[in-house]
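debug: dumping io for the single-chain case to check the tokenizer round-trip. Nothing else runs in this session.
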Amino acid sequence: MTGRSTSSIITLWQQGQSIRAISRATGRDRKTIKRAIEKYQTEAANAAAVVSVTSKQQKISAIEPYKDQVIDYLEQNLTGVRIFKELQKVGLSASYSAVVRYINTIKGKHDLCVRFHTLPGEEAQIDFGYVGLMPHPDANGPCSSNKKKAWVFNMRLSYSRLDYYAVVFDQKVETFIRCHISAFRYFGGVPQTLKIDNLKAAILEATFYEPVYQQVYKQFADHYGCMVVPCRVRSPQEKGKVESGIKYVSNNFFAGRKFDNWNILCAELRNWLDNKCNMRLHGTTRKVPREHFEMEEKAHLVLLPINDFIFPEIIRRKVYRDCHITVYYNYYSVPYEYVGKIVDVQRDSKLVYILCEGTQIAVHPRNDSKGEFITNESHYPKYKNFTPKSEFYRSECAEKMGAIGKSAQELFYLILAEEPYNWYRIVSGILSLQKLYHNDVVELACKRALGFGIIEYKKIKSICKSGCYNLPMDNAKLQICNDNKQNNIKKEIVNG
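debug: decoded output
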């Protein structure tokens, strides 16, 4: 059928003519006419679909200039709402639904994953993986009761993919660090950075911008001259190389194997590591890790220090209600806010450092005797620090005596000079006279007591009771003597 005949059929059909009428008008068979109409309908439907898709793409195109920013926001784990608000700030006028559709075109069915590339010697990635029950060093046979929960430690050099593995039975700080040291010895050097997951052994607060390093792990990293870089929370792709390493050792070494004792486990793991794992053709680099390491990466590692890292002495203690902890039969004070909490104690030859969650909260001179209290008075709350030797308590009492009057305050300093150990009892008695007598009466009684050098509470109370506080006094020399004593004690308090 010619194009002109088809066009005539379609024109007549669009005018509402029946297939029979079109057949009579054109002389064509009705089946031929029907096929022509169906073909036209199919082509028209496809064209409409193309127009619809094009229309959607045109709506999305308004976000295209912001593509790089969108990708950057996705790498920061920002939500769709947050990305929409950020784009509005820079002038985007598209709707929220359009932004979400655009994000989905970038992410597809899975989250966006960015591949990280490193230079030789630049980075090692570290992680633990659970591998089930394994015989431990103290076990005496293959009996299941002699096995413990075990994890495999993996440090993988990001450039060459050279691996180091070790089986451990806990994830304590000391275990974690000893695995690092063994890995450095295996590599014959130290990578510039260590990329770790947010393990409690190393990172106490999973904050990307200001990670709080576990104190000992930070000291260890400084000793070996490397930098610790924690992964961002919920971003496992940032240590994807070592994640693959954990899967590889689990599936290719531990799966389907049984070990009779610790020595056999260690020997077989080392043999597999040297002759299989690091000598295979790596699926991503298409190179043998050991050969790749020896030729291109080993020379870029930081040299091992002469001496291995020495673990500082770490003691864990609970803070008592009296704001002290015990360390080798001595008692060291801790700020009262930490009562009931567990703190870590580190000692060197001169000082004792007390830390809580990696932050130093107190430091004291080291005392090697026994039964001694090493106390910083500021560690007590002020409202509880009422002791005769407390500067806060003395200042409080001086202020209360001063509120009675000038003579009462002067009498306070005289009592302090004459009775340095029992002054607080006398002063407490004088202050209690305010419950029985007006302040003016107590002030006059204190003035008369000063004139005669009296500091006893009972005598001052007797002066108030008898009313002799208004009688004349003739004892100028004694008054001068008392003034001198008051001045001396004031100077001692001021000068500490």
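debug: round-trip ok. Residues 304 and 331 are 40 Å apart (CA to CA).
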